[in-house]
Amino acid sequence: MASINGFLKKIFGSKAERDMKQIKPILDKVLAAYERIDKLSDDGLRAESERIKGVIQSRIAADEEQKKALRAQLEDVNIAVEKKEALATEVDKLTKKIDDEIEEVLNEVLPDAFAVMKSTARRFKEKEVIEVTATDMDREFSAKHDYVRIEGDKAFWSHTWMAGGNPITWDMVHYDVQLIGGIVLHQGKISEMATGEGKTLVATLPVFLNALAGKGVHVVTVNDYLSKRDSEWMGPLYQFHGLRVDCIDKHQPNSAARRAAYRADITFGTNNEFGFDYLRDNMAIDRNDLVQRKHHYAIVDEVDSVLIDDARTPLIISGPVPRGDDQQFAEFKPYVERLYNAQKQLVTKLLTDAKKLIAEGKETEGAKLLLRAHKGLPKYNPLIKFLSEPGMKQLLQKTENFYMQDNNKQMHLITDDLFFIIEEQSKTVEMTDKGNDLIAASVSDDKFFILPDIGNEIAELEKENITPEEKQEKKAALLSDYALKSERVHTVTQLLKAYAMFERDVEYVVMDNKIKIVDEQTGRILEGRRYSDGLHQAIEAKENVKVEAATQTFATITLQNYFRMYHKLAGMTGTAETEAGEFWSIYKLDVVVIPTNRPVIRKDEDDIIYKTKKEKYNAVIKKIVDLTEAGRPVLVGTTSVEISELLSKMLKLRGIKHNVLNAKQHAREAEIVAHAGEAGTVTIATNMAGRGTDIKLGPGVKEAGGLAIIGTERHDSRRVDRQLRGRAGRQGDPGSSVFYVSLEDNLLRLFGGERMASLVDKMGLKEGEPLQHPMLSSSIERAQRKVEENNFGIRKRLLEYDDVMNSQREVIYNKRRNALYGERIDVDVMNMLGDCCEVLADKSESMEYDDFKLEVMKTLSVDPEFDAEFYRNASRDKISDALNAQLRREYEQRSEAMVAQAWPIIKTIYERQGQQFENVAVPVGDGTKVMRVIVNLKKAYETQAKELVRAVSKTITLIMIDDAWKEHLRDMDDLKQSVQNATYEQKDPLLIYKFESFNLFKGVIERISREVVTFLLRARIPVRENAPQDVHEGERRRMDMSRMHTSRTDMVTNGGEPKSNAPVRVEKKVGRNDPCPCGSGKKYKNCHGRLENN
Fold first, then answer.
1. What's the pLDDT at 103?
2. What interhelical angle do 876-913 and 946-978 show, nearest 10?
């Protein structure tokens, strides 16, 4: 296969060569434009950016005006619903047309816009102060930022400003390769650029170009330190051309300041906050609470971390649920602990017996016991140690293959004697009958954990000759018993998984009496993230910390589906090529590898392989000593907190000074990374710690050979290993990298050690003797590919589940948006009327006329106008149409009655107190409940109270949607867990999930339509005689977020940028009564200070 690929590359060139061939003509145009534009004066440069903005706006102006006019017609309550449906469709078509026109014109102006940005960077680098003619935007910026000063009609822009709490002086100009990266990002692709190639500067090019269109650009970072720093660092380049820049992480959620941040031309923020704001917007009950606008263009920094590593875990907004504290983890923990200890004792005995039998030459019997021990506790250290001895790994594999044949037909002979079985590769644990018996004996109840056969028992119950009341009582007791035992089984399973598969200081750490998950990619603590489905509570019980109460999901979305909503998405990272297939398959994002500005001269050595971890770690320590004596800094990469602390202890014994950067030491990240490039410095860091910042070499380090990277274990993903290597060799610096591997490492033990172990056995390797060869390194990479394919399959599968949820989410959220804005609510109400009629008409096929009439009365409180003869002769569609026509008349009559009732009151209030009130609260009820409907007083007066009908429709639709959606989310969570049992019936859980979720969602839509229509057909205003005098201003309703919390929130300060010890400077503050810095002569509170109060 490799030879075929090589042959094709010779004919067609590599993908990188083909990509560069396509980009070269555009790059030439940018360089030509730069020759012209860089000769302009400073004022001429700003005039050029205004010209480009004008070109873009003129191209879409006519369509924007038409769209505005159509939306105004949608707001008109006097236009027929049928016409509004056509108008809404036309608005959607125009939106897509405008997006296409923007992309077309941006491609035309790209060379000029890129040239303007490069020239701006060059001027800020070469001039301490840039003098230009002051504009209104300059005056606005001068009121907030001390790097802009106004004197008369001139504005002075300094090239020094604050970024991330530290003063910086601008010193960068775009290289040609950075222009290439910018072109790739504008095209909606992923730009892979090596560490130190200036990805942040590259982003200024497409960000500036796309911001000129006025639709908003989102720059997404992995933590809030980087989002705040980058917005301040790059901000002045955009502001110099009159663009507003803000960062959502600087403002509180649901605040006016955060809304203003989204209205800026360029908005920085973390991936989590963008996603959470989307969810909060879809929980809002007033359009003024919405913060986000259309998802137009986003650039995701460290795109592999965001869209690959974080893609599995959804963003969740949750709140308290009834009985949230009623959990059984603490109650069943002693039983599971006893079960785990019994298994551990059993495995210890099995291993001892296996060793004895194998030593006596009884390999078959010994291998059987060895396999049983491996199925019981595969991570048991003495077992791992024994398997590293010559021939043992092959013996285990051979025995396992024998018992796995014929679809695991004989495997029960191995596992029946165990208390539970661990499948390490699939990460599952299953209790055996022996384990069930042990726990049942502990509680003295043989059937304590046995689930009853509900179907058979209910069938038997139906046959019994008892009264309906007794039958119902027995059914309730049976279902209650089933629910109780299901909860027990679930609790015990999660506790068992916590004990058997999750290790402290590897998957999680205990800090501040809380369980905190460690990111397997970066080694950082993931604040706010919790394992799902009760597993986190199980680990809390295991570690004797407070078991948090359960919560209910109110809104959820995965990052995969959030970022797929953007009209155009791009990303940048140092390592994406190994995941190119996944990026294309899920996001349709192409990966383009950008050449480095200077050749990479880092020396990457082949892996050094040892038999045991002990030999490997001793060799690592020896290598560190040699490198530090040579005056080189060393970065030691580990895969867990446990290993980093083990190496730290070994270095302390040798008296070697070092720093440790892991999940427990994240607060010192900035300080540690700042010194990591100094001569003789040893830094132990988990995986990608300090990612997003460069390790800069200290004096004399280049001459000594540069930064030395030592990997202590190969990660499951090649991408993570490449990121570790990439810490050295930035911008042509010297450096080296090497990985130390042992056959006991998880990767080789699970996914590829058989052939290598066989080779080691044949060679008769002595203790402490290493192996090093390119073929062995390739073999390790093949093992990594297996894991990557497996992980991709998992993510793909999870996405398929979430796609089902996402399609439903889009329907519900579109209905909510229509209700919030009100433009299309009339169309939605008519559709709901039609849906109700179709559901009732479906029932007509199996009902007599009297039963159907009763059903309609019960559902909608309406008596059908057609008689029994029409009902018998009419088709389903005719019955639906006749019922629909009747309901429309009833709705219109009810609406007209409500308008006639409200108009005199609204007229009186507006004419007497119109200046006093903006909104009024109108009580509207359906005979059983009354709700306050907030309606805009001016609109209600101008439409002669017809606006009230729309306000009622909006309010009841929002209420019914939210109630039904919360229940549906809970049902979908339960369904996702229950369908997994389908595997025991040789069925695909995903297919069953799709089928059942469709039926659930169909019921939700029918319920929403029925409840909204029923309310609207009964709606009336209970008005008293003195109502005009009692009416008070209606306060705008807001969503109460006080008892809700987000999961997956990011670190507060998680960046690795060095911070000085000097006092942190903040943006300048102007007193309210001081003269405004813009030079207007007015007091600040009467000039630009007014903006802060809005």
1. 95
2. 130
Cβ(989)–Cβ(980) below 8 Å: yes
Confidence band, pLDDT 50/70/90 cuts, at residue 324: very low
Interstrand relation of 190-192 and 160-163 (parallel, antiparallel or unpaired): unpaired
- Rounded Cα distance between 845 and 53, Å, is 62
Alpha-carbon torsion, ordered 747, 750, 754, 756, to 10 deg = 10
Give the Cβ contact number of residue 345 at 10 Å.
10
CB 300 within 8 A of CB 573: no
Residues 404, 411 contacting (CB under 8 angstroms): yes
Pairing between strand 930-936 and 919-925?
Answer: antiparallel
- Tell me how many helices (H) and strands (E) the chain has: 39, 28
Q: DSSP label at 730? A: G
Q: CA 68, CA 826: separation in Å to the nearest integer?
A: 19
State both tokens at 916: 């006093």
Paired with 319 in beta bridges are: 552
C-alpha angle 943-947-953 in degrees, rounded to nearest 5: 160
Q: What is the DSSP letter of 450?
A: P
- List strand residue ranges (DSSP E) for 230-359, in order: 245-247, 266-270, 297-301, 315-320
Nearest to 633 by CA among 571, 582, 579, 697: 697
Query: Which residue is it, tokens 């069930």?
Result: 436
DSSP 86: H
Which ranges constitute the DSSP H helices of 152-223? 176-186, 199-211
Confidence grade of residue 12 (pLDDT, cut at 50, 70, 90)? low
> What does the CA dihedral 882, 883, 889, 894 come to, rounded to 10 degrees?
170
CA angle 728, 729, 735 (to 5 degrees): 70
Question: pTM of the entire structure?
Answer: 0.77
Question: What mean pLDDT do residues 684-711 have?
Answer: 79
What is d(CA 706, CA 829) in angstroms, rounded to the nearest whole number? 69
- What's the pLDDT at 47? 95
pLDDT score, position 1078: 67
Angle, helices 774-821/946-978, rounded to nearest 10 degrees: 150
E strands along 365-465, which residues? 420-423, 428-431
Mark 1068-1081 as b/e (b = at least 16 C-beta within 10 Å): eebeeeeebbbbee
Beta strands, E only, 537-681: 551-557, 568-573, 591-593, 603-604, 608-610, 634-638, 659-661
